[in-house]
């Protein structure tokens, strides 16, 4: 590998210092702290929602030990329910795609082996659809035959999160072949 092609974490942060500054300048743009709303909704404000910014910062070289990453992770963990699902706002339904998205972000932030996520991984394995994927139960445009199958977005995000763990160590009720 050429030394020129190798970029360290510090080089990434230095190289993209202006981009990072722009992202950081929007920290309160949704009304609350850490790209959340004042009600702590972490999924609103695309492309500057808490969850999306977390992934941007990881891509820009931030790690689990960076204070901003710890703060974001703590905010996301505040939304974790006792059954392993995530409620990303105060009212309304808890959708599988919200749980999957929060889990995936926390995995990228370095928390995939955090014991608090055990029930979330178990929940996903226990709610996997017969076709092997996951479905988000929000159908803004109505229901039809196509809504009886898994959705590509939640399925791909769930599979992405599972890359971070050994599923053989997770207790679940059924195993997909």
Describe the structure.
- This protein has about 180 residues and is mainly α.
- It has two domains: about 1-80, no CATH class; about 105-175, no CATH class.
- Helix content is about 40%, strand content about 0%.
- The protein has helices at about 10-15, 15-25, 50-60, 65-75, 95-110, 120-125, 150-160.
- Helix 3 (about 50-60) packs parallel to helix 5 and helix 5 (about 95-110) packs parallel to helix 7.
- The radius of gyration is 17 Å and the shape is globular.
- The model has no long low-confidence stretch (mean pLDDT about 90).
Helix/strand order, N-terminal first: HHHHHHH
Regions with little confidence, pLDDT below 50 for 5+ residues: none
- H/I helix tally: 7
Number of strands: 0
| Relative helix content | 25-40%
Globular, elongated, flat, extended or rod-shaped: what is the shape?
globular
Summarize the main sheet: none
Oligomer: single chain
Structural class: mainly alpha
Average pLDDT confidence is 88
**Percentage beta strand:** under 5%
First-residue to last-residue Cα separation: 39 Å
Number of structural domains: 2
Integer-rounded radius of gyration:
17 Å
Briefly summarize what is shown:
By secondary structure, the chain is an all-alpha fold. It contains seven helices and no strands.
Give the key terms.
177 residues, 7 helices, 40% helix, globular
Task: Please give the structural blueprint.
Elements: H1 9-15, H2 17-25, H3 50-59, H4 67-77, H5 96-108, H6 118-126, H7 152-162
Helix pairs in contact: 3-5, 5-7
